[in-house]
């Protein structure tokens, strides 16, 4: 990944904004990522900028799974980029565009290392990266985009006036009209080998002559995207052949393995405070579970109420969730003591109270443990036959999952007709997308529409995120009702 002979530290202070754009290290916002990083980076930056990019790509993958239109995907991706991966045009004089582009460049190459390891990961990475490139292309400054196109060889030739007149009658079939007889159209046309634009050939959007495709300017993006895809596919193949040299560095392989799981359940945000803004009492949990919890936590709660016990990983998953939801240490002890009603006080204090205090950072090494994200629930501590923890969308059989969904959410608007769509995404392995769709269906009465997700189109990536948004929606409804009265 790094060229030792060229390696050096990146210093933004060395860049002079008065220089012409093409004199910069990254002259354009758009990038084909031809040159690998040649500068030293810290391990923290290595992981940080890759995670920022992964958040965006994971949401793009979710958008594909949710069958969003291009405009919806573009809107969601633009918001995600603004939050996690800002990349301004060179005309933004008040922004350090070189640092932005350096971070973008680094993040791409780290993820290239993470996603080159299997054919499926490479395919999904190329698809998501191509969509991100297209979003940026369509929103780019017109002048800067034109300069970028001129800076690369796309193997196209601009069609001259003579050829435009020669094929004028056939070009009419593409909606390209002459202003008058004998006068060539002013619209730009590009001549490329038809193999560069198979998608346009298939859709009959080009004129074919002797192995050449005459492409209207409005379809120019297709040439650029195909070139981007081909360039990235070749680069990933090359990276895959070289990746074994890094296998001895456990620091990097652990980070990269974590990254490659990002498409399974997105990249979760951190949750460290009460989701509701109010402290939760032990006697409130049962009611909150029925109205606001995602299926994984509903299942744990119902198993706890039924069996008056949960095994270790179930207690850990549910206990940390309740802690972040707003259950204090005293209320947590009260909740678990009441739930374990078949135990004596002595047995509870000896075998369970210490672990509850430990999860709050009051015992042992006194670490303040965060609640588990969807990715952690999906990929760690796989449940056995008698366990209740894990993700029902992944770990339940299809029949059990459908039965559980109807039993759990039928009073909140989920019907048997909704199951086909949910089960389709489960079958495709997009478990967090299935959970997001259930959230939309069960909150439809509150005005949540398909595609809204948990807000601004975002998918569920954390159980506390699901519960927090559900509680927030209910509070907003109650506030509106009070105003009406």
What are the main properties of this structure?
485 residues; mainly alpha; 4-stranded antiparallel sheet; two-stranded parallel ribbon; 6 strands; elongated; disordered N terminus
Describe the fold and architecture:
This protein is mainly α. It has 23 helices and six strands. The strands form two sheets. Strands 3-4-6-5 form a four-stranded antiparallel β-sheet, with no helix packed on it. Helix 4 runs antiparallel to helix 9. The chain is elongated, with a radius of gyration of 27 Å. The N and C termini lie far apart (64 Å). The N terminus is likely disordered.
N-to-C CA distance: 64 Å
Helix/strand order, N-terminal first: EEHHHHHEHHEHEEHHHHHHHHHHHHHHH
Principal-axis shape: elongated
Label the structural class: mainly alpha
Q: Order of strands across the widest beta sheet?
A: 3-4-6-5
Average residue pLDDT: 87
The value of Rg in angstroms is 27 Å
Strand content: under 5%
Task: Describe the main β-sheet briefly.
Answer: 4 strands, antiparallel
Helical coverage, percent range: 40-55%
Unreliable residue runs:
1-10, 12-22, 271-276
Counted by DSSP, the helix tally is 23
* Strand count: 6
């Amino acid at each position: 990944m790094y060229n030792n002979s060229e390696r050096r530290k990146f210093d933004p202070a060395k860049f002079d904004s008065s220089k012409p754009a093409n004199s910069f290290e990254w002259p354009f916002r758009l990038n084909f990522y031809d040159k690998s990083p040649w500068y030293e980076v810290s391990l923290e930056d290595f992981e940080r900028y890759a995670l920022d990019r992964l958040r965006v790509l994971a949401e793009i993958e979710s958008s594909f799974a949710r069958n969003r239109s291009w405009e919806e995907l573009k809107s969601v991706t633009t918001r995600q980029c603004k939050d996690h991966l800002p990349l301004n045009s060179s005309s933004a004089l008040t922004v350090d565009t070189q640092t932005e582009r350096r971070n973008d460049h680094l993040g791409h190459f780290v993820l290239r290392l993470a996603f080159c390891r299997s054919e499926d990961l490479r395919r999904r990475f190329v698809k998501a990266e191509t969509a991100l490139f297209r979003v940026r292309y369509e929103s780019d400054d017109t002048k800067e985009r034109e300069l970028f196109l001129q800076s690369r060889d796309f193997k196209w030739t601009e069609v001259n006036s003579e050829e435009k007149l020669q094929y004028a009658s056939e070009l009419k079939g593409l909606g390209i009209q002459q202003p008058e007889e004998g006068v060539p159209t002013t619209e730009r046309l590009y001549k490329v080998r038809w193999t560069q634009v198979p998608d346009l050939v298939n859709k009959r959007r080009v004129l074919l002559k002797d192995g050449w495709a005459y492409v209207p300017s409005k379809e120019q993006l297709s040439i650029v995207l195909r070139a981007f895809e081909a360039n990235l596919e070749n680069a990933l193949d090359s990276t895959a052949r070289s990746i074994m040299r890094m296998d001895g560095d456990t620091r990097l392989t652990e980070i990269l393995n974590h990254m490659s799981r990002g498409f399974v359940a997105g990249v979760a945000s951190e949750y460290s405070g009460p989701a509701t803004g109010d402290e939760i009492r032990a006697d409130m949990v049962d009611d909150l579970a029925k109205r606001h919890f995602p299926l994984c936590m509903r299942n744990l709660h119902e198993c706890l109420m039924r069996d008056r016990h949960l095994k270790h990983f179930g207690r850990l998953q549910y206990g940390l969730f309740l802690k972040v939801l707003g259950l204090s240490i005293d209320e947590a002890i009260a909740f678990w003591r009441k739930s374990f009603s078949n135990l004596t006080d002595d047995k509870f204090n000896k075998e369970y109270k210490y672990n509850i205090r430990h999860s709050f950072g009051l015992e042992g090494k006194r670490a303040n443990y965060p609640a588990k994200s969807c990715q952690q629930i999906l990929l760690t501590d796989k449940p056995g036959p008698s366990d209740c923890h894990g993700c029902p969308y992944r770990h339940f059989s299809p029949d059990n999952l459908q039965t559980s969904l109807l039993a759990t959410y039928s009073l909140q608007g989920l019907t048997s007709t909704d199951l086909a769509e949910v089960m389709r995404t489960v079958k495709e392995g997009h478990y967090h997308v299935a959970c997001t769709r259930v959230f939309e269906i069960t909150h439809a009465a509150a005005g949540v529409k398909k595609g809204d997700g948990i807000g601004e189109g975002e998918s569920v990536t954390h159980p506390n995120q699901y519960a927090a948004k559900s509680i927030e929606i209910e509070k907003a409804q109650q506030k509106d009702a009070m105003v009406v009265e």
